[in-house]
């Protein structure tokens, strides 16, 4: 590999409106620091299957070859995880073999490049510019090389952003000076260090599950062909290294400065504020030194900022009890105004207020709802079905409307997009896991942008001489007495997992229907939603 270093969403069912401005659940339809400068040059590679000058005489396998080795192809299809690709990249988990191999990544990347050319209707020979970012996982370097090679084989120019965040990858298709055609983030989010994966973006946003299924089906055919020794490796890719994170950080800083518009120190609106950041040794450290500190904040006491692919302290995850507890302790020890917890790739976040109270799950949705409803009175808020009745009442009490939709951050965001297209003003879409998207920010689930909104509110409250920190905005939120999320592993061969999970859900559904009322089962996601007088919020059983 040569390196140059220089200075259509799935159909969604409409919500049914109820009284009091509340929209209830709608069943779905089936179905560290591094710096590079930018350079623009061409990475030459091949695309499709006949011998030619651009393919170097390479011959691709016949389209039907996957049928001759279905199990090999299925190993690629099983890597699909909704709109992402995820798998085991390193040994270390009992009973889980490595399946996200360099070859698997290469054929998926090549298939994405081909899909992208078709999607954008670009003729062969016209440049496609694709950026690539990664989190600090140990498998990243080896798999990135395969990713670059696959993109180059599809005729894409490759731009390596190095350590980046998932939201920054999307923004690389939007920000001036970059404006790439697409982007891929290599991450497995909050999962263990042994895992890795791919998230895909175009200028329209993240790919849908249907898009990724098409890419994986194409990749399965290529995988079988390569395993049979058909097709050459192609020429080594030329990769351009670029510094996207500096531009993305500047973008966030500009938003804070402009919206706070501090009357005495415009360029340092966070002067006098103390903010603790817990990056969990993931990608979120940049927010401390490139956003908060440059705006004047004191970040003394921040935790685990340096990237470490082993995640030695705790998993970077705003749902993780250890992460929230350590952040709480740091906030109280340093008298901070706010604590921030990011997940590995910073598409999710949670916060701790100045009293040490954790704000994640329903509490984070309530906080964001309070902020957004103040800016957009009467707006719809879309959440997943795990949100509580107390949250619904909280949103309604502030004049908002609440649509509970199917679990899955992509489903929640797509529902918000659809509602806006249907003329229903919807500015906030959030999942209880911490994924949150705003209409004003390209419907992008960006944990750093969520924190930017909260930081702006914190400063505004101080300027207005209001008592209490941001936590005071949700003091009247009614919370469940108890809430439990159960995640159950399915033992056995991966190819039988879906069938076994469906059987388990069916058996459990029959039991629930006999013993509880108001039961809803979504077999397309193998999840059971159960509400009864015993529970104040849905209980989700995931298989």
UniProtKB/TrEMBL annotation:
GO terms for biological process: glucose metabolic process. Residues 82-220, 269-356, 360-460 form the Alpha-D-phosphohexomutase alpha/beta/alpha domain. InterPro entries: A-D-PHexomutase_a/b/a-I, A-D-PHexomutase_a/b/a-I/II/III, A-D-PHexomutase_a/b/a-II, A-D-PHexomutase_a/b/a-III, Alpha-D-phosphohexomutase_SF, Phosphoglucosamine_mutase. Keywords: Carbohydrate metabolism, Glucose metabolism, Phosphoprotein. Belongs to the phosphohexose mutase family. PANTHER family: PHOSPHOGLUCOMUTASE (ALPHA-D-GLUCOSE-1,6-BISPHOSPHATE-DEPENDENT), PHOSPHOHEXOSE MUTASE. This is phosphoglucomutase (alpha-D-glucose-1,6-bisphosphate-dependent). The lineage of its organism: Eukaryota, Viridiplantae, Streptophyta, Embryophyta, Tracheophyta.
């Amino acid at each position: 590999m040569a390196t140059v270093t220089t200075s259509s969403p799935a159909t969604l069912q409409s919500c049914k409106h109820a009284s009091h401005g509340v929209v209830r659940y709608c069943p779905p339809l089936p179905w560290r620091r591094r710096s590079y400068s930018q350079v623009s040059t061409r990475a030459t590679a091949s695309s499709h299957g006949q011998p030619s000058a651009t393919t170097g005489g390479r011959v691709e396998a016949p389209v039907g070859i996957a049928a001759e080795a279905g199990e090999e192809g299925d190993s690629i299809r099983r890597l699909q995880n909704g709109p992402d690709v995820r798998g085991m990249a390193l040994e270390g988990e009992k009973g889980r073999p490595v399946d996200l191999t360099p070859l698997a990544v290469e054929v998926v990347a090549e298939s994405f490049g081909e899909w992208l050319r078709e999607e954008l209707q670009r003729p062969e020979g016209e440049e496609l510019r694709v950026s690539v970012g990664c989190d600090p996982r140990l498998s990243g370097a080896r798999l990135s090389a395969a990713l670059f090679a696959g993109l180059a084989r599809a005729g894409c120019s490759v731009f390596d952003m190095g350590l980046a965040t998932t939201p920054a990858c999307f923004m690389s298709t939007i920000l001036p000076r970059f404006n790439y055609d697409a982007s891929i983030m290599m991450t497995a989010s909050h999962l263990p260090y042994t895992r890795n994966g791919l998230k895909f973006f175009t200028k329209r946003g993240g790919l849908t599950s249907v898009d990724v299924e098409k890419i994986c089906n194409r990749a399965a055919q290529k995988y079988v062909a390569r395993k049979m020794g058909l097709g050459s490796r192609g020429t080594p890719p030329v990769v351009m290294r670029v510094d996207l994170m500096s531009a993305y950080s500047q973008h966030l800083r500009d938003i804070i400065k402009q919206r706070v518009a501090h009357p005495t120190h415009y360029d340092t609106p966070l002067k006098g504020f103390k903010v603790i950041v817990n990056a969990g040794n993931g990608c979120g450290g940049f927010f401390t030194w490139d956003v908060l500190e440059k705006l004047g904040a004191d970040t003394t006491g921040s935790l685990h900022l340096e990237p470490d692919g082993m995640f030695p302290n705790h998993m970077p995850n705003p749902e993780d009890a250890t992460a929230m507890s350590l952040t709480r302790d740091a906030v109280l020890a340093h008298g901070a105004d706010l604590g921030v917890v990011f997940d590995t790739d910073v598409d999710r976040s949670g916060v701790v207020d100045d009293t040490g109270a954790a704000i994640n799950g329903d509490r984070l949705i309530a906080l964001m709802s309070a902020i957004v409803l103040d800016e957009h009175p009467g707006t719809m808020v879309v959440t997943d079905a795990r949100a509580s009745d107390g949250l619904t009442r909280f949103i309604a009490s502030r004049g908002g409307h609440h649509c509970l939709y199917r679990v899955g951050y992509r489903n929640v965001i797509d529902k918000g997009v659809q509602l806006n297209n249907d003329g229903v003003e919807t500015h906030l879409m959030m999942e209880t896991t911490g994924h949150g998207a705003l209409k004003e920010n390209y419907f992008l689930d960006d944990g750093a942008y969520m924190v930017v909104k909260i930081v702006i509110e914190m400063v505004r409250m101080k300027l207005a001489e209001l008592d209490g920190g941001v936590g005071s905005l949700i003091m009247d939120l009614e919370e469940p007495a108890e809430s439990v999320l159960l995640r159950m592993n399915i033992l056995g061969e991966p190819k039988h997992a879906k069938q076994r999970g469906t059987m388990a859900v069916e058996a459990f559904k029959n039991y629930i229907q006999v013993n509880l009322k108001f039961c809803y089962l979504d077999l397309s996601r193998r999840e059971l939603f159960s509400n009864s007088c015993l529970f104040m919020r849905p209980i989700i059983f995931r298989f």
